[in-house]
## 1
Amino acid sequence: MIGYVTVGTNDLERAAKFYDALLAEAGAGRAMENERFVAWSSGAGTPMLLVIKPQDGGPATSGNGVMVALACESEDKINTLHAKALELGGTDEGAPGPRGDGFYGGYFRDLDGNKLVFFKMG
């Protein structure tokens, strides 16, 4: 159902370096890019994550209550990716661990303050 998700950035080069390193650990690579955005995907026909400079030319801000959830195949992968996000300069928004019945997630904010979670159901 989801084709792609965008998060804003005020420094495309810095954001692209962060996500290149982070998403490579998740098995994703660059799928598209131009002067306004960079997109990553784990393969043809899979959803993409984009970092983008806002169309209106205004500053990018993180949305209160907005979060991007990136699915993982294992708790170990979530632990690794969460640690990588922090190593790359992201901030912790909730250490990896169980959250309720059958949900495991690790929450962080990227360099622009966008909130993301690596998660696994079941």
## 2
Amino acid sequence: MFTGIVEELGHVTAVETLDDACRFRLRGPVVTEGAKHGDSIAVNGVCLTVVDHEGDEFTADVMAETLNRSSLGVLTVGSRVNLERPMAVGERLGGHIVQGHVDGTGEVLERKPSENWEIVKISLPADLSRYVVEKGSITVDGISLTVVDAGPDYFTVSLIPTTLDLTTLGLKQPGDPVNLEVDVIAKYVERMLGDRLSSEGATAK
């Protein structure tokens, strides 16, 4: 489990295309400290498994399903990426509960800079809109953010200078894809209410 608090801005050092997957080599001095085979590291919000680790770089295999459901497929050598290690038991939950399981991708639609922050508008797939509410949480490229405005096919977030300086959202431009993970609690509530309503409907008959 992750918290959506990005630990460092790393970058891709190598990409190997396989038959039905890709193998990425990524540099991140902070997240590779003490890393070992089998550990998890979130890359732009996608939970990946460390296959190999040498110095301040690690290798991860990305299956076709992940490439199809996320924006990792557009990464090339030199691409900047948000990196986060899993939360250790007993640590503070600085963001919100993030699984590293991408629900879909959005696209940066607009950026509105101001003196102390920047408003970013991002497209929202229709099947995810019901999970996104004003002042709720959403994960964008692995970053835990608060929704400012939630529309039927978009949402906006307000980014402080720290987020702009230390994550990929400071680099994204209109047209760039981003990974989205909605609040898992909302999905569980929907499922439980759906089961309950179905049960009550069957009883009523």
## 3
Amino acid sequence: MALLHSLLAEYGESHQNPTNKLVHWVCVPLIMFSLLGLLWSVPVPAAIQNISPWLNWGTLVMVLALVYYVRLSGRLALGMVLVWAAMAAALRVVAGAAALPLWAICLLIFALAWVGQFWGHKVEGKKPSFLKDLQFLLIGPLWLLHFVYRRLGWGY
């Protein structure tokens, strides 16, 4: 748990400006959503697809990230599972209803959300944490979720 608190504190050091925080509340979930959608769009072998339409590269990455999250906090990992489930359901809806292919929509969202992230850090005057350590790409979503847990009075 000390590692989690240390990582959240270090991530928070470059996210003090209210504008940058707001940008992160919008852009981090959009980046997660779009990255999952891009991975979801990569074809999987037919034998795997026949088992379940939910088995794809996006769910594989979710499982791998979940292993990392469980090591940091089981409770936050459970929250991430719920976030991912909602995003996966939304991806299925978008994929079925959109005029463009899912990968194209997600690529546009991904690019715009990263532009937003870098703009937020320009406003902040500090470099993004992941430039120092790539694991902060996984810490960003937990950083947001830990605020939700705090607001609800839940331990993590």
## 4
Amino acid sequence: MLPGLSQAASTADLQAQLARDFPQRLLPAAGGQQALRECGAGPALVLLHGIGSGAASWLQVAQQLASQARVIAWDAPGYGESSPLESPAPKAEQYAARLLQMLDALGIEQCVLVGHSLGALPALAFARSAQAQRVSHLLLISPALGYGAPQRAEQRQQVRRQRLDNLEQLGIAGLAEQRSAHMLSPHAPPQALAWVRWNMARLNPEGYRQAIELLCGDELLRHGRPTMPCSVHCGHADRITPPDSCQDLAVALGASFQPINHAGHASPIEQPHEVARRLAAALTPPLKGDCP
């Protein structure tokens, strides 16, 4: 009883910090509205969350960086109070188009762009689009490769079926209860587990289904290498996008690779100080010719 009460208390405290330090904004968007959280002032830092998460997952990272940057985290289309995309099976370019609308509405001409997990797909799609000059540095944290490549057809079918079946059988609350621990290292503190679960429990079924189709129907590497400095980061205990696969992906993208100690897949929640430190370093452009 006491551990449960403790986790509930810590989550309530984080919710209070969320409202105070990282408040929500709503912007008009094609087909409805776009929700985001924002704090701080300075160079823009734009954060895109993963498939089982939301803008609030960046709270502790944002708190660390608010004195150095204008920190913006979106709720992806179909997440939180963001309207879903029109297509039931969108590609990364459609998410990137919504991202462009958000940046235009916020008056952001250039930013450091960060994609965590599935957020890496729209982040790279945007960085490889005609808007590439608006990204000064691209950071991918535990990036999802996607299952859209022809050689992954069998795996794609299995992942889609499993995720949709779990959604149907467990519901969002059951998914949050069952999947949260997989997002963290075995030694993650109870507060981190509680915050991962709280964020996952806020998923919307329609937006989650669209994200499943993005994961299963798209492929990160089809977008090609980014032209701006790019770095890949991954928790050393990540069981979802393991360090070896993230390092291989970094090589394919021509990016640097850095593991994050004492972290699983949800490193922005488990190791927010270290993640914030790395994002802060990206806010300072490297000298011409330097590697990120």
